Amino acid sequence: MRTWILDESPGAYRAGELPDPEPGAGDVRVRLTASALNHMDLWVTKGLPRPHVPHVPGSDGAGVVDAVGEGVEEVAVGDDVVLNPAVGCGRCGQCLRDQSPLCRSFGVLGEHRWGTHAELVVVPARQVVPKPAGRSWEECAAYGLCALTAWRMLRRARLGAGETLLVVGVGGGVSSFGLLLGLTMGARVAVTSRDEAKRADALAAGAAEAYDSADERWPVQADVVFENVGAATWDKSLRSLVPGGRLVTCGGTAGSTVEVSLPRLFFRQHELIGSTMGSYREFEQVTALVARGLPVPVDAVLPVDSFPEALARLEEGAQLGKIVLRH
Ligand SMILES: [Zn+2]
What we know:
single chain, 327 residues, alpha/beta, Quinone Oxidoreductase, Chain A, domain 1, Rossmann fold, 2 domains, 6-stranded parallel beta sheet, 10 helices, globular, binds zinc ion
């Protein structure tokens, strides 16, 4: 198969060929129609994390099933599908309780196993869901990892209709879906960004207020703060919580070590909640929301041969929505 390959980490991608992967028992092979970029595609080139090599990048994708392994009955050759990038073992107690992100052998497509910026990808059959009717291949390739991550974050933070949600650093993939899913859940959503175009875009998408992330304070009191910036915004995020408020985080793109004032934490009875990726049921739920019309922001669509240009655009950080490769 034609594919993008990482031969060493840290390292750089090259276009090349690898043997076609064959589906084992319980697997399906998908011929990709579109795949989408994530920061994971950059991190693995920097050795953070360091994947097994040769590595095929790409966490998100959609395409057509072109082969199935022994014992696969729920999916057939020719089915249009979307890939769920969050892979649990399917057998342990956490997986059986639909808590696969807590599975000891949990992995992510394009990180722990070969991904989607290739002609073909082989995954366990439970990793594919029917493509939502009426949505484009590009939209279907674009929502997976980010919408799943944002959805689990909002569920873990128990966001309720009528509550105020503050999305810090809007404009990235996960935070954009934090805004869109927060609105879908009936919350009033405020956002912050350093970038005026991203603030304007969030207001156009339905945000009630937008603040400059660099301002000394944000004049908002939120029931839930949605964080993936980290050290650069942490203190202001905590100050923006109502008593009893919840802060949920899936990462720290701008610094991973933070300080917590214990008196403020216990006296104001805040909750700090970690979250990562999502479960199989949660993937079905976000897919159902996409089928019902959840907006999927797509910034640009490039041919798969232009992966290096697409990566440069991602690294620059000026995009509004997901960058998609058409295969
Ligand atoms: Zn498991």
